[in-house]
Amino acid sequence: MFVLPSLFILIALSWLYIAFGEVPVVAGLFYGIKPAVTAIVVQAAHRIGSRALKSNWLWAIAAASFTAIFAFNVPFPLIVLGAALIGYVGGRLAPEKFRAGGHSAAKKSFGLALIDDDTPPPEHARFSWLKLALLALVGTVLWALPMGILTALFGWEGTLTQMGWFFTKAALLTFGGAYAVLPYVYQGAVGHYGWLTPTQMIDGLALGETTPGPLIMVVAFVGFVGAYVSQVFGADHVFLAGAVAASLVTWFTFLPSFLFILAGGPLVESTHNELKFTAPLTGITAAVVGVILNLACFFGYHVFWPNGFSGSLDWPSALIALAAAIALFRFKRGVIQVLIGCALVGLAVHLLR
């Protein structure tokens, strides 16, 4: 249920964005928000990195993942797989280097708690192969039924069918949260399928940052804009197409996550002190830092050099981003406060030009 308010809000905002995105006031607000989002992504990389990168090995994994995706455009799934493999091998060769963060960290007392790491899990939360099989069966049915209907109605190559398949894959790769998977979403939605432009992708993240709910809900914007522009239901029903696509994309994104929690939670609790399970996750977390930093570079390039490096630097955008970074890092201001302030500054700059 916590997803529905965000979904409805993003459907409405996505329609307003398409209908009125060129209006000077709206364009001005986005002009200020986009540099702020760049600073927010940098802060996210710093926040995760400060917790996760506790050894030289993990720093090396983060640097390698950044180089792989930035310089060689290596797909995110391969980066995750490689980081997990390095973490597994590293956990055996140098176990102390891969105990940073997560359940595998050194024990630390946080005071008394009703349920702590030493509390046995209740009966309903204990791992069971039968429960796992039942959840896998239910999840497969809940995924296959709408996917089968979409395939029957629109064919496998249909826009809605491909959205369902693509965001299922994206959901299976959401290690590290929305910031980590957004480069993969960009590669598919913008680079492969052409559902959005790079500018629209950045604007979508800006909308996601300014609305309540999890940031991964930005996928609803991707679905709405992609189906709206593609006119999958015809020119007379573009809003309906966008709303249906946003809902389907949200379903296919969150279904695997909920199943992982319900099915994998008991398994994680039963293995949280075993390094062979936690070390790969530690490696993946380190790689995610590099991926998020790449996302910040991607945003910075499109925001600060809208016409490419052959054009001039957009100094107002750069200064807004610098001010946002100072507010976030130095003065510890909240994200919403920073976004509102930058939006107002961007509006003023845009109207005065």
Automatic annotation (TrEMBL):
GO terms for molecular function: chromate transmembrane transporter activity. Keywords: Cell membrane, Membrane, Transmembrane, Transmembrane helix. The chain crosses the membrane at residues 57-89, 132-154, 166-186, 215-233, 239-265, 277-301, 313-329, 334-352. It is found in: Cell membrane. It is a multi-pass membrane protein. It comes from the Bacteria. The keyword Transmembrane helix applies. GO terms for cellular component: plasma membrane. Pfam families: Chromate_transp. The keyword Transferase does not apply. Belongs to the chromate ion transporter (CHR) (TC 2.A.51) family. PANTHER family: CHROMATE ION TRANSPORTER (EUROFUNG) (PTHR33567:SF3). This is Putative chromate transport protein. It comes from Pseudomonas fluorescens.
